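Q: I'm building a small set of examples for a reading group on sequence design. Run inverse folding on the following structure and report the sequence directly after it, with nothing in between.
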């Protein structure tokens, strides 16, 4: 079926889950999760698949084996379209509403070294710097795992040291509770956002 928007029940579901993250709550409301969250997310990503590829819709369960936080359920539902190793397009819904993003979410040592080498390059690094500046000027939030100091082997006065510090690099945009998240128009908006993010994805895939 065509995506018609996330219902208000999806936001209410996650509001309550943040308060009572328990199996009892989940079992009582798993029907709401399916109809208000899982099914609409599948419909949304299906409509985007022809252009961007099939999405992995993440399981709602947390891996608590090595975590002090034993809350069993994620407080958002995410979906990811991979176009490279840990690189691609992202969308999620949770209590704060809808968030979209793109970038590389982690990198092996060898791949990270290749990306940093490209950032160091005058031409390729300047290209990424221009992209990032454009995104931040147009309302995207720059994110990722960032070192507090320069990575080993790089000077703190490198002209692109802020980019070199990134162990992952993402851009994201929030739609929160905007009315668009409850309508079919969200598909068009996310398509527009992901198209805008494609130059970043392409840069990462070329150099990493």
């Amino acid at each position: 079926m065509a995506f018609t928007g996330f219902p208000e029940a999806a936001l209410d579901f996650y509001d309550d889950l943040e308060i009572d993250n328990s199996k009892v709550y989940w079992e009582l409301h798993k029907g709401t999760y399916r109809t208000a969250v899982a099914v609409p997310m599948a419909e949304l990503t299906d409509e985007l698949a022809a252009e961007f590829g099939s999405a992995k819709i993440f399981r709602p369960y947390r891996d608590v084996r090595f975590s002090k936080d034993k809350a069993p359920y994620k407080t958002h539902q995410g979906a990811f379209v991979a176009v490279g190793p840990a690189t691609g397009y992202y969308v999620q819904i949770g209590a704060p509403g809808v968030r979209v993003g793109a970038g590389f979410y982690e990198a092996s040592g060898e791949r990270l070294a290749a990306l940093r080498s490209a950032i160091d390059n005058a031409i390729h690094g300047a290209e990424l710097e221009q992209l990032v500046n454009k995104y931040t000027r147009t309302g995207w939030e720059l994110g990722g795992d960032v070192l507090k100091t320069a990575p080993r082997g790089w000077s703190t006065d490198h002209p692109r040291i802020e980019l070199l510090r990134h162990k992952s690099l993402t851009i994201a945009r929030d739609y929160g509770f905007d009315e668009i998240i409850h309508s079919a128009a969200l598909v068009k908006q996310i398509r527009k956002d992901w198209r805008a993010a494609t130059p970043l994805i392409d840069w990462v895939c070329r150099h990493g």
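The first helix runs from residue 8 to 19.
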